[in-house]
Each structure stands twice: as C-alpha cells, then as structure tokens.
Amino acid sequence: MKKKILFIVNPVSGIGKQKSVEGYIHSEMDKQKWDIEIIYTLRKGHAFELSSKAAGKYDIVVAVGGDGTVNETGRGLISSETALGIIPTGSGNGLARHLEIPFKINNAIRALNNPRFTPIDVIKMNEFYSLNMAGIGFDAYISHKFATRRNRGPLAYMQLITKEFTKYKASKYRVTIDKVTQEWDAFLISFANSTQYGNNFHIAPQAKVDDGLIDLCVIRDFPKVTAPALLISMIDMSIDMNKYDMIIKTPRVKIEFPEDLPGHVDGEPVMLGKEVNVNIVPLAVNVATPPPELKQTQNILSPLIEMLPVIPRTSKEEGKR
Predict the structure, then answer these.
(1) Which of 157, 211, 224, 252 has the lowest tally of Cβ within 10 angstroms?
(2) Would you call 139 helix, strand, or coil by DSSP?
(3) The two domains 3-121+283-320 and 128-281 share their CATH topology (first three levels equal)
(4) What is the C-alpha to C-alpha distance for residues 1 and 113, in angstroms, rounded to an integer?
(5) Number of continuous H segments (helices) and E segments (strands) in the chain
(6) Which CATH superfamily is domain 3-121+283-320 in?
C-alpha cells in the first residue's frame, strides 16, 4: 500500500526557490511508494490550518517555505503520528540547517523517499509554540522590524541589524529558574531548541532538539566595539566561550518585565505581556530527516556566501542543474 504525503507550499516565502518545487516533486518523488498531494497557502496561518486537518491522515506533511511556514506546519502536527517534512526555501532555515536537510530542492525532495525520523522537542512560550528558537530583546525587536520590510533574505536581514544595532539598549529582566529569582541586564534572551537562528549563526552551540531542555541563552549588555568578535563567535560556534554570553540548560523559565514584551517564535513577531512562561514539550513532533548520503554539509564561509544576491532561475534552467 502506498504511503500518503502532503506538500504545503508557501508561494511567497523567502528568496524564490519555491517556484520550482512542484516540478521537482513530480520528478523526484517515487510514485510507486507515495500518493502525492500539493496545496499552496493563501494567507498567514493557512499552513497551520492545513496541517491540523492533515494530522493523522497522512504519513508526512511537508512544509515548503521558511521558518514561519515550518512553525505553522509543525504546530499542526504536535502529538500526532504524522511526521513533519521540510523543504527549506526561506531566508533563515534554522531548524532545517540543524537537522542537515539538503538545500538543493531536488535533494531535499529525494530525501523524503527514504527518510529517517527524528522526534524533536517543542518550546512553549506563553500560548505560542516554537520548533527552533524563540526570544525577547534585540532579536525580537529585529523580528518586529523585519516583518514590515518588503526586502527579504539574509542580506536584507543583516542590513537591518546593522542599522538598528547602535540604537538598541539592553533592558533589565526579572528571571526565575528553579524557584531562584535574579535580575539580569540583557541585550537579548533566546530560548533555543536547536543550535542556531538560521544562516549558520549559532547562539547555542551545544543545544540538542531531543534532550528535554531549553538552552537559555543570555547575551549581557556589552561594549558595542566588541560586536564583530561576538558575531564571529556565532559563526564559528564559540559564542558559549564569550564572556558576555551565558547559557543555562533548563526545562522551564519565567521572565518578568514592567511592560508588555515583544517576542518572536521562529522569527515571527509576537506580543507576550509582562510575564513570559517558557517550558519544553518533550519529543512533540516527529521530523522526517535525510539519509546519510543526502545530509547537507556546511563550512564556516556559508553564512557569508549566502548573503550574496540570489539570481532567480527559470524552471527550465533549474531542470538543467
């Protein structure tokens, strides 16, 4: 009996690679093994609606898009027997990178013919769920700003960070872990499930998606002149040795602030209120991951290479690759 697979495609995600996806689905998927269905999202939140309805009815539901599409699709599959597949076509793709999912679309689709399955934890932050990374502070501030911009992609994201970096001031947060409360001056606080934000910028180099723990990453207020060294330490995965960085592994944490806090979940902006309760939901989503021969490899220059402008290809050109 054939297995069932549903592709949920965000047609406006990221940097345009999704335009060639449908052709690759038909050319790369093994039709002897799979009954294939493709649906395009029509609006924000649509991927969640589609995956929620598909949960338990398909063997794999595949998110074709960026971190936001992966988040929506994955949320709909929490505690379901249906696995989440990922075809990364966005501008960050943090969870896909952590799980070594191929970035060539044909390889990412081909990997779904013979997938391995990796159960992963999910982070719950108030009423919101994150599969990869959530946070408050500077990264949340940037997320809210970036959501209003027309230009997307890694280069546009770095341009925004450069523009806003010198304006942003650290804040004082009241933090409770294991019934112990402290006050921290922090530039940002990230709640990490995987190691990275995306584009191979690693905020939690030792994080694991299946350990039942949040990597609570705190970058304290720091002299702005040290920012280049901090950035490099994220690229070479040494940020946990930086004196302005602190990482605590914990299953739950509470943050209090005198005003409503802007936050982000997997890069999408949210508002959190004055109290933020964060906890881990163990092994809540089963993810289809590639066999060893199709795993994506990265090198230290990858984040810089990926900031170069992307020249869109036609479907015919993609087919020749």
Answers:
(1) 224
(2) helix
(3) no
(4) 15
(5) 10, 17
(6) Probable inorganic polyphosphate/atp-NAD kinase; domain 1 (3.40.50.10330)
Q: Where are the domains of the chain?
A: 3-121+283-320, 128-281
Q: Structure pTM?
A: 0.89
Q: Which two tokens stand for residue 215?
A: 């990597």
d(CA 197, CA 93): 8
Q: What whole-number distance in Å separates Cα of residue 199 and Cα of residue 131? A: 16
Helices (H), 210-292: 227-235
Q: Which DSSP letter does residue 132 get?
A: S
Distance CA 158, CA 235 (A): 14
b/e per residue 181-211 (b: at least 16 CB within 10 A): eeebebbbbbbbbbbbbbbbbbbbbebbbee
Residue recorded with tokens 């350990």: 211
CA 154 from centre of chain = 14
Tokens representing residue 253 in the block: 């944490």
Number of Cβ within a 10 Å radius of residue 89 = 27
**What is the assigned CATH class of domain 128-281?**
mainly beta
Instruction: Give SS3 for 171.
Output: strand
First to last CA, the chain: 33
**pLDDT tens-digit profile, the chain (321 residues):** 899 999 999 998 655 565 689 999 999 999 999 999 999 999 999 999 999 999 999 999 999 999 999 999 999 999 999 999 999 998 789 999 999 999 999 999 999 999 999 999 999 999 999 999 999 999 999 999 988 887 776 778 788 888 999 899 999 999 999 999 999 999 999 999 999 998 899 999 999 999 999 999 999 999 999 999 998 999 999 999 999 999 999 999 999 999 999 999 999 999 999 999 999 999 999 999 999 999 987 654 555 445 444 434 444 444 444
Q: Which amino acid is at 69?
A: T
**Which of these, 232, 244, 170, lies nearest to 202 by C-alpha position?**
232
